[in-house]
Amino acid sequence: MNRPLPPFRINHLYRCITDMDSKITRLIEQASVIVGALPYLQAYRDKTFLIKFGGSAMDDPRLVKKLMRDIVLLEALGFNPVIVHGGGKAISKAMMEAGLEAHFINGLRVTTPEAISIVERTLSGTINPGLVQMFRDFGGKGVGIPGTEIFVGERIQEKDEQGNPVDIGEVGNVIGCLTERVTEALELQITPIVSPLAKELGTHKPLNVNADLAAAALARELKPVKLIYISDVPGIMKDPSDPSTLIKSVTRTEALELIENGTVSGGMIPKIHSAIDALNAGVRKVHFIDGRLPHTLLLEIFTPDGIGTEVIREQR
Ligand SMILES: Nc1ncnc2c1ncn2[C@@H]1O[C@H](COP(=O)(O)OP(=O)(O)O)[C@@H](O)[C@H]1O
Ligand SMILES: CC(=O)N[C@@H](CCC(=O)OP(=O)(O)O)C(=O)O
């Protein structure tokens, strides 16, 4: 006849079963998260996502690594991510170290002949190879492409607050895009990582291009399903100092009004202009999301409402 188990053995057995139960429950939860991704995988496999990764969101190396890992995941899932990166903060730091002061007009850096070599060195010598390395460390097939191999530029003349033209130096607008290197990489399931520099039409000299404008120029050609700007704010806010004033969705017209009425300033101005530019060229949706949030990109792509601000063409 079986003798009853002593109480301590029953407790132990019970604990083992509940531990196993909670482990299985956790695994089941993980499996349902993966299954939840199914509609997005079906919708977005083989689709291009243009990701503009701003220098403002590059402060924390751990977050940068996490973001690169998430983009490697997109690549592994069969999406076609393309990264255009910035590096404004790092450029300003390098200029300061060289004894040069940073000046911006309407969000664009005044770039003297002395400054352009610092811009090039920072973008092509430090930031671009750094991101490519991180990408590869996670098993991704990233390739660095200097913007000068893609973008053809023309010098821009900006206007000061009184409307007078001002020369901002070696700064360009993108007037042409040679996308072969990008499309060739995408065909091989390799993720292009592009720096924001252009080759000046005629002289072939490098021009400093605002990374938001470079991303929009590439978006005009590639027509991604989404153009996503990753920066250091939750999105466009009515009051930039108060995250609770985040605007979830704006149309092109409303976004322009935000510039005109002064709600938006500094680096957010070229971001909005370039978003509108991309929408005008046929990109369906542009998003502004917060790079300080872990898995920010996945939250945008794999959730029904997304995060941050979306800029859309027409009234909802
Ligand atoms: N209304 C606004 N909502 C959100 N951010 C704004 C707004 N107006 C100005 N900004 C500024 O725009 C900045 C983002 O632009 P920028 O510094 O150029 O970033 P990035 O390096 O990502 O391109 C934010 O850090 C914020 O200070
Ligand atoms: C002309 C111009 O302003 N070029 C930018 C290029 C880098 C950039 O745009 O970086 P973020 O995306 O981090 O702002 C600059 O020199 O800062």
From TrEMBL:
Chief location bin: cytoplasm
Taxonomy, superkingdom: Bacteria
Keywords for the protein's UniProt record, in alphabetical order: Amino-acid biosynthesis, Arginine biosynthesis, ATP-binding, Cytoplasm, Kinase, Nucleotide-binding, Transferase
Manganese keyword on record: no
Molecular function via GO: kinase activity
Any single Pfam family the record assigns to this protein: AA_kinase
Gene3D superfamilies: Acetylglutamate kinase-like (3.40.1160.10)
InterPro entries hit by this protein: AceGlu_kinase-like_sf, AcgluKinase_fam, ArgB, Asp/Glu/Uridylate_kinase
Positions of the record's site feature: Transition state stabilizer: 52, 271
Catalytic activity: N-acetyl-L-glutamate + ATP = N-acetyl-L-glutamyl 5-phosphate + ADP
Biochemical pathway: Amino-acid biosynthesis; L-arginine biosynthesis; N(2)-acetyl-L-ornithine from L-glutamate: step 2/4
Annotated Aspartate/glutamate/uridylate kinase domain residues: 47-290
Keyword Acetylation: no
Location(s), subcellular: Cytoplasm
Binding residues for substrate: 87-88, 109, 208
Assigned EC number: 2.7.2.8
Chain's role: Catalyzes the ATP-dependent phosphorylation of N-acetyl-L-glutamate.
Family (UniProt): Belongs to the acetylglutamate kinase family. ArgB subfamily.
HAMAP family according to UniProt: ArgB
Protein name as it appears in the record: Acetylglutamate kinase
